[in-house]
Each structure stands twice: as C-alpha cells, then as structure tokens.
Amino acid sequence: MDHLKLNVSLLRQRVPNLTSAAKSVGLRPATVSNLCTGKIPVGRAEVRTIAALASLAKCSLDELILRGERVDMIETGIKPLDLFAPLAKGGTVGLVARPGMGQLVLLSELFHHFKQEGYLTIILKPEGEYPGLQELLDDTERIVYSIEEAYSIVADTSASREIVFAADREHVLTGKIYDLQERFQEEGITQITTFLVDLKGAVVDEDLPYGPLETLWYFDADLAARQMFPAVNPLYSTSSVLEGVHLEQNHLSIQQRAQKLLRRYRELRSLVQVRGMQAIPASETEVYERGERLEAYLTQPFFVAEAYTGLPGERVPLQDMLQDVQAILNGSMDHRTVRDLTWIGTIK
C-alpha cells in the first residue's frame, strides 16, 4: 500500500480555526492533531473522521490524502527533539508551553545553530516585552515587524537559502500566518520551516492550539520545575516524520522503546514521590532506575545558555544519540549514576 498522509497544507489554508471546526462536526481535536502530525496513521483512522475533514476543507478525499509523500527531518543535535519529535523540514512547528518553561531558550539554541549552518533566520517580532525574547533576537539575522515585510524577505531570499521563520501565536489567531503560507505555496516557496510560539502560555489549555502542524513540541511543567532542560515532554510531543517510512527502522524502534520506558517510569515516579522507593515492586526497580537514567541523559547544555550554566554547549549527532539511548535501554549503562548522565552531550 502506498504511504498515506493528510494534506496538512490544504487543511491549514481552508480550515484555519480547526479546533472549533472539528468540534462542530463531532471530532476530537486531539485526534485531528494526531492525524496531522502522523501520530495516528491515516490508514488507521475512521472513515467518518477522514470524510468529516474532507467536508470541512471542501475537498475530495484524493485532495485530502497524499500518497507516497515524504517528510524529511532536519537534524537539530538536541537529543529529545531528534528522538521523540523530529523537526519536519519545510513544515510548521508548534511550541506549546507556559511562560518560563524554556521554550524561548530552545528556540534561541535552534536559531544559533541554524545561523551557523547558513540558514536565513527571521523572526516576526511581537508587540510587548517578553522575558527571554532578547536572546532569541541575538541569533536572528532579520527581525521584521509585519507579515508583508516577512513575505518580502522570504520571496527575495528563498531561491538561494534555506529559511527558518518564527512568529507569535497572535498571527495564527488572526489567520495572517495561514494567508502567508498560502502565498508561499502558490509561488512554490517550500524551503521555509516555520516555528509558532505562544508567548502568553494560553495554548497549554487547548487541545489543538495552532491548527494543523507537522511537528508539535509540548513542554513539561514537571521537567521544567526540576530544571531538566530542554523540558520537552517525550510522550506528548510528536512529528509527521515519525511515520515509519520517514525514519530508519532502528530509530523508530528505539524511539518507541524509550517512550514505553519513560511512560512506565513516570507512573512509578508518582508512587516514589508519595511513598518512597519501598512502594515499587522489586521487579520494577530496574525499570525505574533505567527510566531515571534516560531522563537524565536527555538533558543537554546549550550554547546560548553557557553564561548562565557555566557548561559548554553540546550538539549531539543523531546516530550517537541513538546508540546512547539504546545502551541505556539495554542496561549497558546500569553501572552509571544518574548524576554522571545529567547535563552531558554524548555518553562517550
């Protein structure tokens, strides 16, 4: 069977307020979000769901479902992103977090890397003052103040450079981001990856905060409170790149095993916090300790935070990260302490 995926660009253009629209026809916004990111394969979706989406977009099923389409990932060198929710090249990324969870630091680190790699980095600066925004601006090559200005720069540059573009969610609510992306699509501009961030933190309480996305990074309050940065939730974050044909089978297998371990570890940790280690059955102690090591390993020192942490920044190649995670899962790191694995790059 040909690989199937939703035409996210078409949905984005024709149904900007997908949250309300989905609810109005009896669809769960979370289900629609998971279909857009690929967490739920299109082939496993109910016919009623797909038909309802086609009706909302006023298109045929052939237009809504793409066959043989491939979504490539951009390797970021940031461990939890590359493992759990790879960055979809040319797609739209939503960062869901409350203020102070480290989302702007993460975006700053990405822009720092992209700028060094020759990407054109652009930010549509929001009105008002927000803590941490200045660090992001420091690694932004072009700061713009309107949608039209953003369009002009992208149109003039797209033929010669890859582009990353960041904007606040306020432009999603007005629909201007969708209008901009539609203009890019009409003109064949595909080498632009868009980051949408909610500086007010309102999207944490919504099921589908940005409409259709290729990548969703959901930040975790517990990880942020424990200073386990980047505080990206390994269970809720997802990407259309995760569908099997887009990743090497080894990557997908390790990702799924890591999620399974961390899901159980989090359940056990809630018991430990209340009743101590004695609350865990002896048969689960190994699972808990490996989950603790993996959670520690997924922390990472950033280049843009060196002045604050005193630790040199680290980028971790994808294959090195996968080898390290596999070693933790298989028990090869059972002799290492949690402290040894915290705030490092690769284990070796």
TrEMBL record:
Q: List UniProt keywords, sorted A-Z.
A: ATP synthesis, ATP-binding, CF(1), Ion transport, Membrane, Nucleotide-binding, Translocase, Transport
* Cell location: Membrane
Gene Ontology CC: proton-transporting ATP synthase complex
Q: What superkingdom heads the lineage?
A: Bacteria
Please name the GO terms that the record assigns under molecular function: ATP binding; proton-transporting ATP synthase activity, rotational mechanism
What the entry lists under InterPro entries is as follows: ATP-synt_VA_C, ATPase_a/bsu_AS, ATPase_alpha/beta_chains, ATPase_F1/V1_b/a_C, P-loop_NTPase
Q: Which PROSITE patterns match?
A: ATPASE_ALPHA_BETA
The reply to whether Membrane figures as a keyword in the UniProt entry is yes
Q: Identify the residues that the record assigns to the ATP synthase A/B type C-terminal domain, covering every copy.
A: 247-329
Q: Which Pfam families match?
A: ATP-synt_VA_C
Q: Which family does it belong to?
A: Belongs to the ATPase alpha/beta chains family.
Q: What is this protein called?
A: ATP synthase subunit B
Q: Which organism is it from?
A: Paenibacillus solani
